[in-house]
Amino acid sequence: MKLRSAPLEDWLRDYYFTAEIDISSSGVQSYSMAELRTFTGIEYSDLDALVFDDGYSLGTPKVREAIARRWGDGDPGKVMTTVGSGEAIWLVLTALLRPGDEVVVVQPGYHSLVELAVGLECTTRIWRLDFDRDWRPRLDELAELVTDRTRAIIVNFPQNPTGASVTEAELREIVAHAERVGAYLLWDGAFADLVHDSPALPDVSTLYDRGIGFNTFSKAFGLPGLRFGWCLGPADVLADCVRIRDYTTLHTAPLVELLALGVLEHAEAFLEPRLKQARANREIARDWAAAHPDLVAMTLPAGGVAAFPRLLGLADTYEFCENLFQQRGVLVIPGSCFGAAQHIRLGFGGSSEALVDGLDRMTDALRDERR
């Protein structure tokens, strides 16, 4: 497999750790170990009792059971824990796809959900989201893209970077398009628990025998540094993933799974405060965009904690984003990292104070750009 560079990671690698104000992230504000231990009741004695043996190839049984109860159909045999959802996505795509396979992908989109298929020498067909249609996915366009040659459809709704989503009825229609040709439907549900105006969508693995759902602690749970993720899917696909994993990570670390089990057993303690914060911050972002229609045009995201506004008058936001960081200490993501150069990814999952300050500084920078 030969992979192209990931512009998003190249950008963050340079700026993430030194930003004064980060309003770029697609995840909620991160929790500390002290907060994790408070919410879960994990004691130092629990950590001291851990023996650093090797782990289970598919994950510790209790952890898989907890995931199956919350997101799956209750069957832990359909669950695999991984080093973030990125490993799960890589394992599944490597197990399922071969050179020449036809794969439907969404653009603009997160690089792992597009570039891995390209690196595996698949033929990608683009399901494009359009800013002029408020990023709403057109299911009639998907129907035209899916053919008898389609091996997989790869999506994530709520979507990164646009925040667009679908209704449950539309989810079931997407399932029907996959089912009519026997394609796998791979659904990145990283933002499944970060929805604002509608109920969370069911995991695709509960709706279709070739549906595979991915999820992570990195977005809604505020634990990106824990590097814990999972997938839900057919047992035979997970078995193929294990055979690939035997050459790489082997298993998820026992310490990570100990902490993850505590989080899963107290999930609402992590999710509810950050969702409340995200919804308040979404209103701040909405009001900011509404107050500056000469500078920015933004569709309010239905899910997640990132919007993908267009900065008016800029054909490419890359240089503006560089200057915003260098001169004003504010980190956002240029839209070219997602193939949409007129846009930026604006994150609103952090503190309200940082969001207001960052938006004020960006407004000043945009005004200066006009002078």
Automatic annotation (TrEMBL):
Transmembrane segments: none
Record flagged with keyword Transcription: no
Signal sequence residues: none
Key words of the record: Aminotransferase, Pyridoxal phosphate, Transferase
InterPro entries: Aminotrans_II_pyridoxalP_BS, Aminotransferase_I/II_large, Capreomycidine_synthase, PyrdxlP-dep_Trfase, PyrdxlP-dep_Trfase_major, PyrdxlP-dep_Trfase_small
UniProt cofactor(s): pyridoxal 5'-phosphate
Domain Aminotransferase class I/classII large residues, every copy: 59-355
Keyword set includes Methyltransferase: no
GO molecular function: pyridoxal phosphate binding; transaminase activity
Pfam family, one: Aminotran_1_2
PROSITE patterns per the UniProt record, alphabetical: AA_TRANSFER_CLASS_2
UniProt xrefs under SUPFAM superfamilies: PLP-dependent transferases
Domain of life: Bacteria
Family under the similarity heading: Belongs to the class-II pyridoxal-phosphate-dependent aminotransferase family.
Protein name listed in UniProt: Putative aminotransferase
UniProt source species: Catenulispora yoronensis
Lineage of source species: Bacteria, Bacillati, Actinomycetota, Actinomycetes, Catenulisporales
Gene name per UniProt: atf
